[in-house]
Structure formats: C-alpha cells, structure tokens
Amino acid sequence: MSTVKYTPRLADKYTKEVIPALMKKFAYKTVMQAPKLEKICINRGVNGAVNDKKLIDIAVDELVMITGQKAVPTMSKKKISQTLNYVRVCQLVLA
Fold first, then answer.
1. Residues 17, 49: contact at Cβ < 8 Å?
2. Does one domain contain both 66 and 54?
3. Which helix (H) or strand (E) is 25 found in, with range?
4. Predicted structure pTM score
5. Is 73 helix (H, G, I), strand (E, B) or coil?
6. Which of 51, 52, 41, 39 is nearest to 90 (CA)?
7. CA–CA gap between residue 26 and residue 20 (Å, rounded)
8. Total number of domains in the chain
C-alpha cells in the first residue's frame, strides 16, 4: 500500500496560485488570514430528463469529465410550477 497523499487539483491550484494572489491584493500578513475552501457543491438541472432518461447519463458523464468524480443523479422533491414536471438534478460535492 502506497503512502502517497492525494490532493485534488483545485485545492492544489488554490494553495499555489490563489492564496498568494489574495495575500498580495489584500495585503494579508499570514496565510491564515486568506479565506479557505471547505466544500464545493456542483448542481446541474436536467429539464427534459423526466421524459428521456438518456439525458441524465449525458449530464453525469459531463460532470465526471469536468470534476473527475461521479455525480449522483436525483429527482427533485417539488414541482417547479403546476405546468412543469419534476426536474432531475445531478449533484456533486467536492470536499
């Protein structure tokens, strides 16, 4: 078993590029003053997926390509309006 620790690309980019830019722009004295990323949530509504289930698979594949993690397809709990059907949503949480 390897002991290499995995760090997500976004977290790596944030620590190497964004935090130094924030420190320079806002004149922070220490790294601890810069804001931290705790959780990133990505939601995508797929409107026509009630009738066509293939649209959900396409949306999940697109989110996988963007983030590198598998999204969880869910059904909305309420109707948006009386004329519209339920909307399916692909959710992804990057912690």
1. no
2. yes
3. helix 19-26
4. 0.56
5. strand
6. 41
7. 10
8. 2
Contact 66, 76 (CB under 8 A): no
Residue 27 sits in the same domain as residue 58: no
Binned at pLDDT 50, 70 and 90, residue 18 comes out as very high
How many other CB atoms are there within 10 angstroms of residue 63's CB atom?
21
E strands along the chain, which residues? 40-46, 72-75, 88-94
Which range marks the domain in which residue 3 is found? Answer: 1-36
pLDDT of residue 10: 79
Amino acid at 51: N
65: nearest Cα among 92, 38, 85: 92
What are the Cα distances from residue 32, in Å, to 4, 10, 11, 14, 89? 25, 18, 15, 14, 36
Average pLDDT for residues 55-84, to the nearest whole number?
A: 75
Residues 88 and 42: beta-carbon distance below 8 Å: no
